């Protein structure tokens, strides 16, 4: 799948989504979000992405939310993912668009995220980016989250 944007975007209100056997590239990967724009409440839960390949994409497994939004992203799994020259293989970004940063004291909660058997090459020295809002009392990842398991 060749795109100039997300190969697949899982947006507000999505639940119980299974995605498998996708070849993505070029593009922006398979993304949860963007969620919470204009301080809106947004939810995504129970998403399983499996047996996918990202080839030459700017992102791989990505979760993106706007600062000031509310709601949740939970029970997300990326499993058996192959990365070939991906700039940002794994990214959780609670400040998706910098022009929307306003520090209003709320954020979309991200919890119960699992990455299993993610392998390949990163074009950036940091293969994992967690850009979490530290001002609010809503975690980017709950204590139950598994950032990486292999």
From TrEMBL:
Entry keyword set: Cell wall, Cell wall biogenesis/degradation, Glycosidase, Hydrolase, Secreted
Coiled-coil residue windows: none
Gene Ontology biological-process annotations: carbohydrate metabolic process; cell wall organization
Subcellular localization: Secreted, Cell wall
InterPro entries the UniProt entry points to: Glyco_hydro_28, Pectin_lyas_fold, Pectin_lyase_fold/virulence
Keyword Manganese: no
Catalytic residue list: 28
RNA-binding keyword on record: no
Organism domain of life: Eukaryota
An MF annotation (GO) of this entry: polygalacturonase activity
Family: Belongs to the glycosyl hydrolase 28 family.
Protein known as: Polygalacturonase
Protein source organism: Trifolium subterraneum (Subterranean clover)
């Amino acid at each position: 799948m060749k795109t100039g944007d997300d190969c697949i975007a899982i947006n507000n209100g999505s639940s119980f989504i299974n995605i498998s056997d996708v070849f993505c590239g070029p593009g922006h990967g398979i993304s949860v979000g963007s969620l919470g724009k204009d301080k809106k409440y947004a939810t995504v839960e129970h998403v399983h992405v499996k047996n996918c390949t990202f080839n030459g994409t700017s992102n791989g497994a990505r979760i993106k939310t706007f600062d000031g939004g509310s709601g949740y992203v939970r029970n997300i799994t990326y499993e058996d993912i192959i990365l070939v020259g991906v700039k940002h293989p794994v990214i959780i970004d609670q400040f998706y668009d910098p022009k929307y940063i306003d520090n209003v004291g709320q954020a979309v909660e991200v919890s119960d995220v699992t990455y299993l058997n993610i392998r390949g090459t990163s074009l950036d020295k940091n293969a994992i980016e967690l850009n979490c809002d530290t001002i609010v009392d809503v975690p980017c990842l709950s204590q139950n989250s598994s950032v990486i398991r292999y």
